[in-house]
Amino acid sequence: MRKTLLFLPGPVAVAESVLAAMARPLENHRGPEFAARLTRVADRLKPMFGTTGPVVLLGSSGTGGMEAAVASMFSPGDTLLACPIGVFGRRFAEIARALGCTVEVLDTPAGAALDPAALAARLEADTGKRIAGVLLTHNETSTGVQNDMSAYVAALREHGAISVVDSVSGFGASRFRMDEWGYDVVVTASQKALAAPPGMAMVALGARAIARLEASTCPRFYFDLKKALEFSKIGQTPWTPPISLVYALDAALDRYEASGVDAVVERHALYARAIRAAFEALGFTIFSRPGAHSVTVVAAAPPAGVDPGKLLDELRVERGIILSGGQAELAGKIVRMGTMGDISETDILGAIGAIEIALLDADAPVHLGSGVQAALRELIGKVGAPA
User: Contact at 8 Å (CB) between 55 and 45?
Assistant: First the structure.
């Protein structure tokens, strides 16, 4: 059977050792052995968040973690400032509205990162401190845009609003310094840079966030960080956890730590540079703007005359290469290629070669080998400009 290679923005290709961990016999989720494992996983995640505070694990997708964060921090009627840079940032705002919050949106031009000056200006104008919280996206897979999270620290600190960060697709692939930067809640999930199967959300809580757990009156039951935090202190979750996914996440962290954070961060940045270079050599137009490029996904419009949907179909059916299309207003306009998961430099080059063949089949004006050569120059160099 032909091997299929996933280059999705998530879920991602998962290593055999991580998949094998899921076949372990189940154990008592209220017993001491599982408590030790759950505590170990949470403790191993803390330095990746850049925090010494608690990290709680939820049996859910990243969206569940985002809902838990909003529901546990705020109350109906609270005014929140959402700062979307794509589909998932807008989802954050939708979650808050569904929970009864009043949401103001600070728009950002397509393909650009959130402007620190724009955020600072809006918060400075809030002299009455009506804004109770700010919803931010670390990395946006729908647009291939990444925010520099250190750039917003001063404005947030000056205003004092609670900050909630969706780092689902940024966590682990680039450094996050939660305590140093002063972010209050950071949410991530298992199926992105950590290269584990989907189904686990992880939420880190700062001191101000913990203090707010008692004050929020948003209706919640399952997605309650107060309950999750209480149970985490005894190595448990409030509800039955996805035990096998915890095994897998534990094994994925083994692989991450064996590589070392420096190597993992550089690998994602390197793969992203290689893919962008290849795409540009093949006539694609990169959607993210310079200075705002994601390290976990590259979003780009194919050359003129090439239908993105047909390109994706040919890659999937004829070559076993799985990329993503655009979402919402970008549906049918771009393709997205991820850098996360158990993929190698050879896999990247093979996928670029397959894209070249598909473009040639579509009669695109492609110089044979240009994409592979551009990617190879980045991969061989190993050192390049920051992503």
Answer: yes
Q: Is 341 exposed, middle or buried (CB count within 10 Å of its CB: 0-12, 13-18, 19+)?
A: buried
* Cα torsion through 224, 230, 232, 238, rounded to 10: -50
CATH among 3.30.1540.10, 3.40.640.10, 3.10.50.30, 3.30.420.40 for 16-257: 3.40.640.10
Q: Where are the alpha helices (DSSP H) in the chain?
A: 16-21, 32-49, 62-73, 87-98, 116-125, 153-159, 178-181, 207-212, 225-232, 243-259, 261-281, 308-314, 345-361, 370-381
Domain ranges in the chain with CATH number 3.90.1150.10: 5-9+260-381
H-helix or E-strand containing 5?
strand 5-6
Between residues 375 and 381, the one the model is more confident about: 375
Give first-to-last CA distance, the chain, whole Å.
36
What are phi and psi for residue 297, nearest 5 degrees?
Answer: -155, 140
**Where does CATH 3.40.640.10 sit in the chain?**
16-257
CATH no. of 5-9+260-381: 3.90.1150.10
CA distance linking residue 129 with residue 305, whole number of Å: 51
- pLDDT recorded at residue 2: 64
Per-residue pLDDT at 43 exceeds 50: yes
| Residue listed under structure tokens 């149970």 | 231
Q: How far apart are CA 243 and CA 286, in angstroms?
A: 40
Place of tokens 């949401």: 103
Q: pTM for the full model?
A: 0.95
- Each residue of 328-378: pLDDT tens digit? 999 999 999 999 999 999 999 999 999 999 999 999 999 889 999 999 999
